[in-house]
Structures are given as C-alpha cells and as structure tokens.
Amino acid sequence: MNFQKIILPVAGVVVIGAAFEAYGWPGVMLVVGVLLMWMLLQYNRLIQILKRAADRPVGYIDSAVMLNAKLKAGFSLLHVIAMTRALGQATSPENQQPEVFRWTDPGGSHVSCEFANGRLTKWELFRPPGAAGGGVDAAP
C-alpha cells in the first residue's frame, strides 16, 4: 500500500488545523494558499514535461547507452519521461503491473524499463551485434 497517498492529505489537514489553532482564519488562508501554490507548481511541471514529450516520436531517444547510465531504481515514470523527453513505447499489456516501456535510439539499441506502481524497478540495455561492444547489458 502506498502510504504517501494517505500521509500527504492527512499532513495537510493537520497543518491547516495547527494554523487555525495558532493564527485563526488568516493562518488557514496562508496554509491553504501555500498548499495550492505547491499543487500548481507540480501541475505546471507535469504539463511542461508532457509538452516536451509531445514534440518527439513515441519511444525514440538520442542515445540508449546514455539513458541506461542515468537510470536508477526508484525513479518515477514521469522522471524517466523528463530525462528522455519522449514517451516510452508500451510493450506490456495495458493496465497490468508491472508496466514495461521501451526507448530506442537511431542505432537500433534500446532500453526496456519495468515500472511497478509507477516506480522503476529494473531496466535492460540491448545493443545490436553491429554496435560497439554488442550484446546485452543488464542493470538491477
């Protein structure tokens, strides 16, 4: 179970309650304004990332090797989309966990990333035999 979905709203309510106890309605308005600004900043970041990704073909990146070097377990799908500036090509059945997306570069190398509940769990770099180094490189 993802406790972040529970903890953040509860923390928001607690902070609003503490602001009311300490400063009354002006404190509540200040905290609500800060929370609203934070949500708007997150929304703006999401829109900017998706706008950049919309300008590129689905599943294509400049260098699969560089993407493989930058990936770390625990990255969110949104973070990976921001790094690649492209939506990944879905290779797993729709609405099933784990989700698998693939990004391919012009040389035919590709990185397949597996996401469980929106977080990167493992990835694999495939380089065609003609590419330098050739073969398959795997990461945790």
Strand count = 5
Assign a percent range to the helix content. 40-55%
Give the CATH level 1 class of the largest domain: Alpha Beta
CATH architectural label of the largest domain: 2-Layer Sandwich
Q: What's the helix-strand series?
A: HHHHEEEEE
* CATH fold naming of the largest domain: Beta-lactamase Inhibitory Protein, Chain:B, domain 1
Q: Tell me the β content.
A: 15-25%
Structural class of the secondary structure composition?
alpha+beta
Q: Termini separation (Å)?
A: 23 Å
Plain-language structure description:
The chain is of the alpha+beta class. It has two domains: 4-53, no CATH class; 57-138, Beta-lactamase Inhibitory Protein, Chain:B, domain 1, CATH 3.30.1450. It is 46% helix and 20% strand. The chain has four helices and five strands; from the N terminus they run ααααβββββ. It has helices at residues 4-23, 25-54, 64-70, 77-84, and strands spanning 89-90, 99-104, 110-116, 119-127, 135-138. It has a five-stranded antiparallel sheet, with helices on one face. α1 (4-23) runs antiparallel to α2 (25-54). The mean pLDDT is 88.
Layout of helices and strands:
Blueprint: H1 4-23, H2 25-54, H3 64-70, H4 77-84, E1 89-90, E2 99-104, E3 110-116, E4 119-127, E5 135-138
Antiparallel strand pairs: 1-2, 2-3, 3-4, 4-5
Key phrases:
46% helix, 5-stranded antiparallel sheet, alpha+beta, 20% strand, Beta-lactamase Inhibitory Protein, Chain:B, domain 1, 2 domains, 140 residues
Quick overview:
The chain has 140 residues and is α+β, with helices and mostly antiparallel strands. The protein is built from 4 helices and 5 strands; from the N terminus they run ααααβββββ.
